[in-house]
Amino acid sequence: HVQLVESGGGLVQPGGSLRLSCTASDFTLDYYAIGWFRQAPGKEREGVSGITSGDTYTYYADSVKGRFTISRDNAENTIYLQMNSLKPEDTAVYYCATAWGLGYGALNAADFSFWGQGTQVTVSS
Q: Over the stretch 20-35, which tens digit does the pLDDT of each residue have?
């Protein structure tokens, strides 16, 4: 059935790296913009990174710029979020979601219609 599945989360020490994957079942991600969001306990959902369907534009929140990289592998029908130099404040549940496009600037969760179930990332020593 149609679904988005995130994977790759886990426990990592500060300064470490993780690569999150967002894989689609029963539909192709080629035609969609994809966003990565995160939500920590007691905090609002934050748009972390996004990529357009043609990979012509990528977005990064200031809090992750220079540390996170979003990429797409159409053959694998998967979007990746490479996270380096992780900090304790990166701890959150990370979600991927689809949209028909990306506006310039911060991601708006209301523009994203289909969401995965999330994967937990914990950065702690």
A: 999 998 889 989 999 9
Judge contact between 48 and 65, C-beta under 8 A. Answer: no
Distance CA 56, CA 18 (A): 24
Under 8 Å CB-to-CB from 25, ≥6 apart: which residues?
Answer: 1, 2, 3, 4, 5
Give burial (CB, 10 Å; 0-12/13-18/19+) of 25.
exposed
Query: How far does Cα 59 stand from its chain's mean position?
Result: 11
pLDDT tens per residue, range 90-99? 999 999 999 9
Cα separation, 9 vs 53, in Å, equals: 24
Closest CA to 105 of 47, 66, 55, 37: 47
Three-state DSSP class for residue 51: strand
- For residue 10, what are its two tokens? 């886990």
